[in-house]
């Protein structure tokens, strides 16, 4: 069938995008990798009247700034997966990006597009929570920096205002005693996960858990942080019994819904299993890194 | 640049320069098949899932059903025919034939192009990596093992010898 006709503009600057979006109002959309938007347009579930193509903007940058990694909104999933720099400084992002869709999706899909699209089962929004990522936006009233936790508001809904563009993502680089892992269950490789879990654990000199982040996808209208589970682990040496208890807590704290893919009870069970696997693998990596 | 619904795009298709007028809402898949007669590109799902519409955009495998025509301006597009500019079958295609990796043939163009692009950027690849790289290309006939055999033989017998 293909998309309905629309007006098209290839933007040349951030200001240009904001201007176009303001003029286009509710019927204008940004086009990044097109890997979520174009399928929806092909199915005519989304019918924008104006498409503002941002692919020519200089937003594919990737650099280290002190203890932060700065990633432009147009960094492609494939770059996250394969770049030596991202693999070394932010391996959780690489591991998650490798699980997104198929090679073709990863060749074109962008980090900014994935976060702005905010699918509750998507890997990168979940990982942005696990990394406490800061999301930088530009809009008619200037620039804002939002924490990931403030960004995801509901099903496919974010804190982005109309005419606001996500431009940059900032995450802390991996610390020496930090481990990470993403685990997911999907019906077929390349499908969206039914449930996914991302863990990041940092140990101190005595082998106690200093920092722990556990984030989940596919368990509600937004990605969620499993704070109850984190609280059970922080400050103590981690062992399989504690990980087990924390994972049960993660499963108890969520409010999943039943849909065509899985029942709520099954999602809860997956949450327990995947949280346990992710925490276990993250801890093993953190311990390996400990001198 | 002014907002528009129709535009003129120039790109390279299988080594030849092309310039056409298209409406902005056309997909690369429909331009290739309906306007340019490049019917070695197949249409399956139109949602980025099946891989039959795979083409190489500046050397990388993409779903042509999810690329809007204006994005192709200035790009280099390769379809299956572009792998054999001199008319002789590409060695990867020969491997597909030799290993029985073609039955109905509908998935074949996308499968060959995906494998070709992946092996080019990962010349030391393993069967496990190939499985992941080809996971987004559906085949309803071969059961996948013969496809992997064909690509693996290409990696081993053709690429490593060069
Ligand atoms: C077959 C298939 C399988 C997939 N599987 C997965 C999967 O397993 N996991 C997963 O996470 N994703 C999956 N995806 C989606 C993919 O990851 C998309 O690339 C991603 O969700 C959107 O990124 P994009 O750059 O393609 O955005 P686009 O499709 O261009 O845009 C998506 C939305 O975000 C808006 N937008 C884009 N960029 C910005 C920006 N910088 N600022 C503000 N708004 C913006 C657009 O207006 C649009 O509303 C799959 C897609 C396909 C086709
Ligand atoms: S037709 Fe494009 S991926 Fe199926
Ligand atoms: S050979 Fe028939 S679909 Fe693959």
Task: Give a brief description.
The complex is a heterodimer of chains A (291) and B (162). By secondary structure, chain A is an alpha+beta fold. Chain A has helices at residues 14-24, 37-42, 77-82, 84-89, 91-97, 103-108, 111-117, 123-130, 148-151, 227-233, 240-253, 264-289, and strands at residues 7-10, 28-31, 50-53, 62-65, 68-72, 134-139, 142-147, 152-154, 157-158, 165-172, 178-185, 195-203, 209-217, 224-225.
List keywords for this structure.
heterodimer; A: 291 residues; alpha+beta; five-stranded antiparallel sheet; four-stranded antiparallel sheet; 25% strand; B: 162 residues; five-stranded mixed sheet; 5 helices; 5 strands; elongated; binds flavin-adenine dinucleotide; binds FE2/S2 (inorganic) cluster
Molecular structure report:
- The complex is a heterodimer of chains A (291) and B (162).
- With 291 residues, chain A is of the alpha+beta class.
- In chain A, helix 5 runs antiparallel to helix 8 (123-130), helix 10 (227-233) runs antiparallel to helix 11 (240-253) and helix 11 runs antiparallel to helix 12.
- The termini of chain A are far apart.
- Chain A contains twelve helices and 14 strands.
- In chain A, the strands form four sheets. Chain A has a five-stranded antiparallel β-sheet with strand order 4-5-10-6-7. In chain A, strands 11-12-13-14 form a four-stranded antiparallel β-sheet, with helices on both faces. In chain A, strands 1-3-2 form a three-stranded parallel β-sheet, with helices on one face.
- The longest helix of chain B has 15 residues, at 145-159.
- In chain B, 33% of the residues lie in helices and 17% in strands.
- The model of chain B has no long low-confidence stretch (mean pLDDT 94).
- Chain B is α+β, with helices and mostly antiparallel strands and 162 residues long.
- The termini of chain B are far apart.
- Classes of the chains: A alpha+beta (291), B alpha+beta (162).
- At the A-B interface, strand 1, helix 2, strand 3 and helix 6 of A face strand 4 of B.
- The structure holds flavin-adenine dinucleotide and FE2/S2 (inorganic) cluster (2 copies).
- Flavin-adenine dinucleotide binds at residues 29-37, 39, 73, 100-102, 105, 109-110, 112-114, 116-117, 119, 122-124, 160, 165-166, 190, 192 of chain A.
């Amino acid at each position: 069938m293909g998309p309905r006709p629309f007006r098209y503009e290839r933007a040349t600057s951030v200001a240009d995008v904001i201007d176009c979006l303001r003029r286009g109002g509710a019927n204008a959309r940004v086009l990044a990798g097109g890997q979520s938007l174009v399928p929806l347009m092909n199915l005519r579930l989304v019918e924008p009247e104006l498409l503002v193509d941002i692919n020519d903007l200089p937003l594919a940058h990737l650099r280290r700034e002190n203890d932060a990694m700065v990633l432009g909104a147009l960094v492609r999933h494939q770059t996250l997966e394969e770049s030596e720099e991202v693999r070394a400084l932010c391996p959780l992002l690489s591991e998650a990006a490798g699980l997104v869709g198929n090679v073709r999706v990863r060749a074109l899909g962008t980090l900014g597009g994935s976060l702005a699209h905010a699918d509750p089962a998507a890997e990168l929004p979940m990982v942005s929570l696990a990394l406490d990522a800061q999301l930088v936006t530009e809009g008619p009233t200037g620039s804002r920096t939002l924490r990931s936790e403030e960004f995801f508001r509901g099903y496919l809904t974010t804190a982005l205002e109309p005419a606001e563009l996500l431009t940059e993502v900032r995450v802390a680089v991996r610390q020496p005693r930090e481990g990470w892992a993403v685990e997911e269950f999907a019906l077929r490789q390349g499908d969206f996960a039914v449930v996914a879990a991302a863990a990041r654990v940092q140990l101190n000199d005595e082998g106690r858990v200093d920092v722990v982040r556990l984030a989940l996808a596919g368990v509600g209208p937004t990605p969620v942080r499993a704070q109850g589970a984190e609280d059970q682990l922080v400050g103590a040496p981690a062992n399989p019994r504690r990980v087990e208890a924390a994972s049960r807590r993660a499963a108890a704290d969520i409010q999943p819904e039943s849909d065509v893919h899985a029942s709520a009870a099954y999602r809860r069970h997956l949450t327990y299993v995947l949280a346990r696997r992710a925490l276990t693998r993250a801890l093993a990596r953190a311990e390996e890194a400990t001198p | 640049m002014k907002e528009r619904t129709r535009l003129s795009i120039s790109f390279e298709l299988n080594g030849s320069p092309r310039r056409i007028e298209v409406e902005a809402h056309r997909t690369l898949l429909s331009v290739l098949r309906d306007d340019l007669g490049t019917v070695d590109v197949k249409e399956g799902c139109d949602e980025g899932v099946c891989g039959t519409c795979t083409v190489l955009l500046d050397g990388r495998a993409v779903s042509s059903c999810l690329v809007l025509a204006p994005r192709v301006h200035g790009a280099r597009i390769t379809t299956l025919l572009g792998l054999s500019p001199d008319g002789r079958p590409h060695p990867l295609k020969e491997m597909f034939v030799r290993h029985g990796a073609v039955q109905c043939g509908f998935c074949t163009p996308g499968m060959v192009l995906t494998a070709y692009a992946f092996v080019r950027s990962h010349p030391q690849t393993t069967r496990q990596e190939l499985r992941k790289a080809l996971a987004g290309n559906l085949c309803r006939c071969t059961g996948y093992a013969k496809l992997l055999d064909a690509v693996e033989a290409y990696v081993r017998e053709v690429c490593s010898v060069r």
